[in-house]
Design a protein that fits this description.
Largest sheet: 8 strands, mixed
Distance between the termini: 21 Å
Order of helices and strands: HHHHEHEHEHEHEHEHEEH
Number of domains: 2
CATH architecture of the largest domain: 3-Layer(aba) Sandwich
Strand order of the largest sheet: 3-2-4-1-5-6-7-8
Helix content: 40-55%
CATH class of the largest domain: Alpha Beta
CATH topology of the largest domain: Rossmann fold
Shape: elongated
Number of helices: 11
Number of strands: 8
CATH superfamily of the largest domain: P-loop containing nucleotide triphosphate hydrolases
Oligomer: single chain
Radius of gyration: 21 Å
Length: 290
């Protein structure tokens, strides 16, 4: 049973019993909100229901959306016209950074937000990541700037930025390494890449996007904290959303770190990426039609 169906079933009663509040808190923990957030949300919901005179489950479910709404934060990270934009994708290995880079390139070329894109293979520690990005570049007709495995990632990014200027590209999307087992080296590497971009790009045209796997739950919050220690994270991209029975981690990250969500990915095709819509997201989360 999907998470939203479980919410719908629990709050489908005509009159809520005292034990239902504890059951709801437990369910919200399973939905990746975390214990403290779940308890606080239920307490706020109980207060809202008492104030509004709501005793039925359906009314409580509608109010639950209102309670969670402040933490369903969207971010518009579309490229800005009139100059070079840079998007650096962060995230641990396996979350789908490389595929997400291709999806973003396809989306922004298709809707006219970008005229020419260059992909930078900044994950130089994995030969598979470099080859995968090259494969996407060939399929999409996009230049990929890459070096051999083990090369300096900063040098790759520097070359990509230089290529963008010389070729008149208006968007560089950079893949990065995600070696969480070596935290300090990862942080130093990202700090270095961040400085390279910051020195050559208008801050208003530079976005650092953290890619997180919706199926990993609270681990994604831990990852967000770690990457935020290295550089400023502007927004997250939620991948594998179609495989997740929950997806509440976007709310938890926004509440804990103040980081909004830019996109949700729900499939393998290039088209399977959509802008984060808080209303749609909350409706899917609590099992509501509107």
């Amino acid at each position: 049973m999907k998470f939203a169906d479980r919410i719908r079933k629990l709050l489908g009663r005509q009159t809520l019993a005292p034990d239902d509040w504890d059951a709801l808190a437990d369910l919200l923990v399973e939905g990746d909100l975390g214990a403290a957030f779940a308890d606080a949300a239920v307490q706020e919901l109980k207060t809202a229901c008492a104030k509004a005179g709501v005793r039925d489950g359906e009314g409580a479910r509608r109010l639950l959306k209102t309670v969670l709404a402040p933490d369903a934060r969207a971010a518009d990270v579309s490229p800005r016209p009139g100059g070079l934009n840079v998007v650096m994708l962060l995230g641990v290995n396996g979350v789908g950074k490389t595929t997400t880079a291709a999806k973003l390139a396809h989306r922004w070329l298709d809707d006219g937000s970008a005229g020419k894109v260059i992909l930078a293979a900044g994950d130089t520690f994995r030969a598979a990541a470099i080859e995968q990005l090259r494969h996407h570049g060939e399929r999409l007709g996009i230049r990929v700037v890459a070096q051999e495995q083990g090369s300096d990632s900063g040098a790759v990014l520097f070359d990509a930025l230089a290529a963008a200027v010389s070729e008149g590209a208006d968007l560089v999307i950079a893949d990065t390494a995600g070696r969480m087992h070596n935290k300090q080296n990862l942080i130093r590497e990202l700090e270095k890449m961040d400085k390279i971009v910051a020195a050559k790009t208008d801050p208003a045209r530079y976005r650092r996007l953290l890619v997180v796997d919706a199926t990993t739950g609270q681990n994604a919050l831990v990852q967000a904290r770690t990457f935020s220690q290295a550089i400023k994270v502007d927004a997250i991209i939620l991948t594998k959303y179609d495989s997740s029975a929950r997806g509440g981690i976007a709310l938890a990250i926004a509440r804990d770190l103040g980081i909004p969500t830019a996109f949700v990915c729900d499939g393998e095709r290039y088209e399977d990426i959509r802008a984060f819509d808080p209303v749609v997201y909350l409706s899917e989360f609590v099992g509501s039609d509107g």
